[in-house]
Amino acid sequence: MKYEIKSFMHKSLPVIQEASIKGRNKLIDEKIKTTCKAGCSSCCSRPINITLIEAAIIMNLLKRKGLWERVRAKASELQEFDTIDRFTWFRMKIMCPVLDTDTNLCLAYENRPMECALHYVTSPAKSCDPWGTSVIEYKKVDNDSFYHELVTRLTSIVGDSIWVFEAPVYKALLLAEVFKSKEIADQDTLIQAMSKERI
Length: 199
Ligand code: SF4
What we know:
Layout: H1 5-29, E1 49-51, H2 52-64, H3 68-77, H4 86-91, E2 99-100, E3 105-106, H5 114-117, H6 144-158, E4 166-168, H7 169-180, H8 187-197
Antiparallel strand pairs: 1-4, 2-3
Helix pairs in contact: 1-2, 1-6, 2-7, 3-7
The structure holds iron/sulfur cluster.
Residues 44, 96, 98-99, 106, 108, 112-113, 116, 169 line the site of iron/sulfur cluster.
């Protein structure tokens, strides 16, 4: 079965971008005072998973901006941490490969993953930083229902194809690059290809 990746990306992009709108509207509607601001990238050390369709859209944007090779190289380097658990990953403060560590800005901000776009906190920034000295309680704005709704809509677009498969950001980006040019029939083939490609 051939997956129409271009069509999937075209239909999925508005859903992914809606996360940003929903997240911001909730802050306005419920008068929530967030402490998040541009240049604070503490949350970009969180080990999150994204769908391959989100990764394909990010890769496309980065290619258009001429930034893909740089991000790809960082994503490749992160494969050495493949076996560490999520808690250790966070404590090591391993930053997302899509973050520009000079400016602390997301290189794919306009098409960033839904989980990132829906992530807001009301607690001080230090409580998000794995190396922060604050012990103040971490308080996240609850956007889980939006996230699940949007994932459901994405699933209805890409069906049971490999594009709904979730992986850590670095791995999802590398997989998206491999599979964008291939016809993959099912998740068994995906898993076989992952070990063959050593991703
Ligand atoms: S995709 Fe962007 S916003 Fe999300 S963790 Fe990576 S750098 Fe941060």
